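Fill in residues.
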């Protein structure tokens, strides 16, 4: 992997500043089936569309009254993506959590016995081919240890010291290379195990790769966060098995992709669609789910 030069980072930092994501936000209801975001920036020059859907089924022989369903929509704005338009097959309301995650709320007055509802969501985005400058937000949140990101663990601190270099990008790249080289990839693991587990056991799925890189970077004083979403070229209809975790680190006024499992460091940024910023310091609006939640045990829900 060739070293990213200081000239590149200076050029990125010199671009015009765009709006930020993060901090506390207020709930914003959508106007019917479609939400359009009029703001934009020349930095986001690559159009992209993501489509996904869910099937809700009443498993009983009675009518289900006032059922509700919630699902994440793509993060409104990051250094690599800007949501332009969200369309859905059913009316919804939108809220935003303290991290800037968008949650779509669907409500149904009644669902007939053994009946189904199919929800489809289409999102038009503009992607940046290089990370666009934006605020770090609440930097301390992305520097501190937390559950699964044990940046103060002695073994992690010791390793972080060995990969530290003079420039933020160099330190981040060394941490990325260590994780990419020294961990063995597992297939999907339902339960999160964390950075300490990944370091001591030397294996994990994409989540553990992202957690360990994030912990190493934070231990070296680099604001870093874990992301969840999908990675694909062009446009795509995504399904549950496509879900992926990676990390972003903050340097020279922008958030940059670091994905040790997929062997991608600050490149192919327009392939990454962020559905969620992940932190155990902020309550997950969907409980323990990465994608959706629903109100009744009598519902069966699947991602199409």
């Amino acid at each position: 992997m060739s070293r990213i030069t200081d000239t590149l980072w200076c050029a990125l930092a010199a671009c015009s500043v765009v709006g930020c994501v993060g901090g506390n936000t207020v709930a914003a209801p959508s106007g019917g089936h479609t939400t359009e975001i009029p703001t934009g920036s020349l930095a986001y020059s690559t159009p992209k569309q993501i489509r996904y859907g869910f099937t809700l089924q009443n498993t009983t022989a009675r009518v289900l009254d006032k059922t509700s369903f919630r699902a994440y929509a793509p993060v409104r704005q990051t250094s690599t993506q800007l949501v332009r338009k969200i369309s859905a097959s059913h009316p919804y309301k939108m809220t935003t959590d303290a991290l800037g995650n968008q949650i779509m709320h669907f409500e149904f007055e009644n669902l007939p016995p053994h009946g189904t509802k199919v929800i489809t969501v289409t999102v038009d985005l503009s992607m940046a081919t290089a990370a666009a400058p934006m605020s770090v937000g609440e930097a301390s949140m992305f520097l501190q240890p937390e559950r699964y990101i044990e940046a103060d663990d002695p073994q992690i601190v010791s390793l972080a010291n060995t990969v530290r270099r003079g420039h933020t990008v160099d330190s981040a790249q060394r941490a990325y290379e260590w994780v990419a080289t020294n961990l063995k990839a597992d297939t999907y693991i339902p339960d999160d195990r964390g950075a300490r587990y990944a370091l001591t056991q030397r294996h994990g799925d994409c989540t553990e790769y992202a957690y360990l890189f994030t912990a190493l970077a934070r231990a070296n004083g680099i604001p870093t966060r874990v992301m969840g979403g999908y990675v694909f070229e062009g446009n795509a209809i995504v399904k549950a098995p496509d879900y992926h975790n990676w990390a972003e680190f903050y340097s020279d006024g922008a958030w940059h992709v670091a994905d040790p499992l997929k062997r991608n460091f600050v490149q192919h940024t327009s392939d990454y669609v962020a559905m969620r910023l992940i932190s155990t310091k902020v309550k997950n609006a969907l409980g323990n789910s990465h994608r959706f939640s629903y109100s009744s045990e009598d519902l069966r829900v699947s991602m199409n």
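The longest strand covers residues 44-58.
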